[in-house]
Amino acid sequence: MDALILARAQFAFTVSFHFLLPAFSIGLASYLAVLEGLWLRTGRGVYANLYRYWLKIFAVVFAMGVVSGLVMSYEFGTNWSVFSDKAGPVIGPLMAYEVLTAFFLEAGFLGVMLFGINKVGKGLHFVATLAVAVGTFISAFWILSVNSWMQTPVGYEIGANGQFLPGSSWTAIIFNPSFPYRLVHTVIAAYLTTAFAVGAVGAWHLLKDRANPGARTMFSMAMWMAAIVAPIQIAAGDAHGLNTLEHQPAKVMAMEGHFQSHPHGAPLILFGWPDQAAQTVRGTIEIPKASSLILKHDPDAALMGLDTIPGADQPPVAIVFWAFRIMVGLGFAMAGLGLWTLIARLRGRLYDSPLLHRAALAMGPAGFIAVLAGWTVTEVGRQPFTVYGLLRTADSAAPLAAPAVAASLAAFAVVYFTVFGAGFWYVVKLMGHAPHAGESGLDGAPIRTAGITPAPALTEGEPA
């Protein structure tokens, strides 16, 4: 493999690890804010105990997310230095805004959130939790603005040295055509990822003890999120797909497996094997004209195919095709589980159905797999460009020799699987312990605030 393929593999490896962690921490930070808000409003100790329980997990996940993100800055300066030079005047300030807003906000309040629960008042601690939750969203805002500009570049000028320079309006760059759709779709995906992880943990403990109040509460809250938000995500994904069809048609052609144009209605290919060399999908199972109905809301509408795109500008179809189906399939599975829990709730069987709990446990990793599949569709579908239609990936890489890139890729693989493998193992170990009354936090003490004796509801025998 040449240096370009190795550099792409290295960035794909590191960004995939990194993307899993913020996807979890964004949703988990908001979940913690909801738990603390409910505790302050109702005084029920179960919410305080769940807050302590998930706070320990959040601390580990957040720390791993920060560390894994630092590596990509290194890669921008080594493997992708040409890209950094050409696109830096546009994307550099946006990434700096993330540091000046999200990072400073999180850094300023994270310590209070993690270690100040027994040292500051209830109100101030809740503000700290809210600040961290808002900080994670702001971080997603800026990072997705950068990525969306690379997908749908606008508001730039080309300098004499070939650099992308900001035009007259930063607003056009920040709020580029795909950004609102990508932001909504990704943040909802983060919330669903967290909901199904929390729901799986709740289901695991319900299978062992149906009367555990913490397990019942977390499972119920997670399944409400699944039932309500999963259908919203499907609608958001449809809107995002229509926006992609407008601005990145080759990506949608690869997602749909449309090598040929269809002037009188395109079929929806459910399954098949894309053969890019032959420009066809083999062994298809398809629904006639359904793709035109979904994308154009007209079964007879014409849809262009990859036969209108030069071969050198086509993305790798097989990867995009299958990643898209994994993402969509898991999305409908999430909505199906949410509907199942609604029916069980109406029948009074939400906590008494082992089959439902096993299904929720099996769906625990679904959000993580779905966000990785969606990210693959987004990034591989943009190929062969880093800045869509303007700067090719082959022209973005640094002039490094393959052995140098291979050595750093091997080093990253060893370190990542060792360090983050241990981190993930520890998170799963924390999840394996059932939440209980008087749950201790990072300081090892039961929850309390300065000068206030721990509430009786936080002792053993706490009411549900």
TrEMBL record:
<dbReference type="InterPro" id="IPR002585">
    <property type="entry name" value="Cyt-d_ubiquinol_oxidase_su_1"/>
</dbReference>
<keyword id="KW-0812">Transmembrane</keyword>
<protein>
    <submittedName>
        <fullName>Cytochrome ubiquinol oxidase subunit I</fullName>
    </submittedName>
</protein>
<dbReference type="GO" id="GO:0005886">
    <property type="term" value="C:plasma membrane"/>
</dbReference>
<keyword id="KW-0349">Heme</keyword>
<comment type="similarity">
    <text>Belongs to the cytochrome ubiquinol oxidase subunit 1 family.</text>
</comment>
<keyword id="KW-1003">Cell membrane</keyword>
<keyword id="KW-0479">Metal-binding</keyword>
<feature type="transmembrane region" description="Helical">
    <location>
        <begin position="319"/>
        <end position="343"/>
    </location>
</feature>
<dbReference type="Pfam" id="PF01654">
    <property type="entry name" value="Cyt_bd_oxida_I"/>
</dbReference>
<feature type="transmembrane region" description="Helical">
    <location>
        <begin position="397"/>
        <end position="428"/>
    </location>
</feature>
<feature type="transmembrane region" description="Helical">
    <location>
        <begin position="94"/>
        <end position="117"/>
    </location>
</feature>
<dbReference type="GO" id="GO:0009055">
    <property type="term" value="F:electron transfer activity"/>
</dbReference>
<feature type="transmembrane region" description="Helical">
    <location>
        <begin position="20"/>
        <end position="41"/>
    </location>
</feature>
<keyword id="KW-0249">Electron transport</keyword>
<keyword id="KW-0813">Transport</keyword>
<feature type="transmembrane region" description="Helical">
    <location>
        <begin position="124"/>
        <end position="144"/>
    </location>
</feature>
<keyword id="KW-1133">Transmembrane helix</keyword>
<dbReference type="GO" id="GO:0016682">
    <property type="term" value="F:oxidoreductase activity, acting on diphenols and related substances as donors, oxygen as acceptor"/>
</dbReference>
<keyword id="KW-0472">Membrane</keyword>
<dbReference type="GO" id="GO:0019646">
    <property type="term" value="P:aerobic electron transport chain"/>
</dbReference>
<dbReference type="GO" id="GO:0046872">
    <property type="term" value="F:metal ion binding"/>
</dbReference>
<feature type="transmembrane region" description="Helical">
    <location>
        <begin position="219"/>
        <end position="236"/>
    </location>
</feature>
<feature type="transmembrane region" description="Helical">
    <location>
        <begin position="355"/>
        <end position="377"/>
    </location>
</feature>
<keyword id="KW-0408">Iron</keyword>
<dbReference type="GO" id="GO:0070069">
    <property type="term" value="C:cytochrome complex"/>
</dbReference>
<dbReference type="GO" id="GO:0020037">
    <property type="term" value="F:heme binding"/>
</dbReference>
<feature type="transmembrane region" description="Helical">
    <location>
        <begin position="53"/>
        <end position="74"/>
    </location>
</feature>
<feature type="transmembrane region" description="Helical">
    <location>
        <begin position="188"/>
        <end position="207"/>
    </location>
</feature>
